[in-house]
């Protein structure tokens, strides 16, 4: 996939045109109750799913409360990728002061994602405010895959157009400390990511 990212320019479009290497098109979100996958337990209701993602950054831990009530499929994807070690060693390739920090691309370029299929959008009315975690995507609303961003400040112009899946509850100072740039000269990285 090409650049999967929200725009900083608040008057322009919110994503750059791109085509996902996994193909386009996704099915609508099913009406049946959402279920998450457990590593050895099979499927379990989202209400019973692990609720906390810990990102260990170079400067310390960031604790994120997962929001399966808003985005069950995205929480399932983040959980799967984190617990499979996908995010370990991945950099924040786009960090814009006063806007957001974006990571989740294994190439560190903002042009790729996981080998899993793209996700259907799970947009909500949840506002993009400081500490909100949301999925990056292309112009296609159903193109979220593995890249995500954490808001430094209010970015409500993104509301209803990007899938919110979590909220930083501790360690936002470590996100604030990430080196800035597009890309940063020496990007900060996720040392380890795990859901518990």
TrEMBL record:
It is an enzyme of class 5 (isomerase). Residues 1-49 are annotated as: Disordered. It holds the Pfam family Pro_isomerase. It comes from the Bacteria. PPIases accelerate the folding of proteins. It catalyzes the cis-trans isomerization of proline imidic peptide bonds in oligopeptides. Belongs to the cyclophilin-type PPIase family. This is Peptidyl-prolyl cis-trans isomerase. It comes from Sphingomonas bacterium. The lineage of its organism: Bacteria, Pseudomonadati, Pseudomonadota, Alphaproteobacteria, Sphingomonadales.
